[in-house]
What we know:
alpha+beta, two-stranded antiparallel ribbon, 42% helix, elongated
Amino acid sequence: MNLKYDQNGLVAAVVQDHLTGEVLMVAWANERSVELMKETGYTHFWSRSRNKLWKKGEESGNVQKIISMQTDCDLDTLLIRVEQTGVACHTGSPSCFNEVIYGNTDGTSAIMPELKRVLRGRMNDPSPESYTCKLFNDENKMCKKVVEEAGEFVLSIKDKDENEMAWELADLIYHVMVAIEKTGLPMEKVFEKLSERRK
């Protein structure tokens, strides 16, 4: 399959976190950088401002290990799912996409990577006042909360109350994410199991 490079010999490359789906950055790739990505397993791009090839993280150490690389139907854009070391943005932010210029992200999945970072922060820098840390420190309570919230979500389904269902599912997702973070369960394994069930 041959990519369709533009008049400057480039294709757009959208870089996405392989676990959360968060878009981390967009860059440009030429034929050589695509070859380097396939050869090394790490992202390489073409800098239009510096007019040279560069490996993401070559100076900062914030490298991107490629998990998968796909192209769109026109063969002129790449979607690269990566395991990000450190942050993706040169400003120090996890993603280059931080400024909301229209609407808001409250009703979107943008909360998932943010919540994941908060939970990771509580693990690395615990606070005795934090409810999350209390769950981390009491495995029985953590497990009971998952069961409790699952039960409340099921009951909300029976009540056919959309607001209650949303509330209870949010509680369940949060408590499951706490358990995932505490146990260190690799989500890659979970996604593999889901892939096996895609029939």
